[in-house]
Structures are given as structure tokens and as C-alpha cells.
Design goal:
This protein has five helices and no strands. The longest helix is centred in the first third of the chain and has 21 residues. Helices cover 78% and strands 0% of the residues. It has a domain of 60 residues. The chain is rod-shaped, with a radius of gyration of 21 Å. It is mainly alpha-helical and 89 residues long.
Length: 89
């Protein structure tokens, strides 16, 4: 019976460790929080997308996957550039 309790505790501990380690980190660069240009770009992007936040997030996520290591402003400028370029073709 004691062995069963010990195994149960170990299993729960391992499950908890796995759950906590697989949780995505909320890493946000400081430029995202402090740079006023970033806020202007966010507003401009939302205007281009008629307030569609889900689409903005999706487009930014795609650019982050394609071009790793760039700044937050770069991703915003890239998405805005692509939208404006495609809109006027």
C-alpha cells in the first residue's frame, strides 16, 4: 500500500513538472511595451484590418515564424507593408 502511494505521488509530481515546463512563456520585448512608435503601428494595422484583432495576431505570428529574431516594430511594419502592397495591386 505504501509503495502505491509513493508511486502515485511520483507520477503526479512528474505530470505537474511536465505541465509547467510545457507552458508557453509570456516573453514580450521591452520595445513592445515602451516604444510609442509600436503603438502607432498597432493602431495603423488595426485600421487596415477594420479592427480584426484575430487576423492581426495571425499575420504577425506568420511573420515571426518566417523571419525569426526581428524587432516587434519590424514585424508590424512588414505586415502593414504587405497589406498595403497587396491592397493596391
Amino acid at each position: 500500500m505504501e509503495l502505491l502511494v509513493v508511486l502515485l505521488i511520483i507520477s503526479l509530481s512528474l505530470a505537474l513538472i511536465k505541465l509547467l515546463s510545457s507552458k508557453p512563456r509570456g516573453k514580450v520585448s521591452t520595445s513592445f511595451l515602451t516604444n510609442p512608435k509600436n503603438r502607432q503601428l498597432q493602431k495603423r494595422l488595426l485600421v487596415l484590418l477594420c479592427g480584426d484583432v484575430a487576423t492581426a495576431k495571425r499575420l504577425l505570428r506568420q511573420q515571426r515564424q518566417l523571419h525569426r529574431g526581428k524587432s516587434d516594430n519590424w514585424y508590424l511594419e512588414k505586415v502593414i507593408y504587405d497589406l498595403e502592397r497587396d491592397r493596391y495591386r
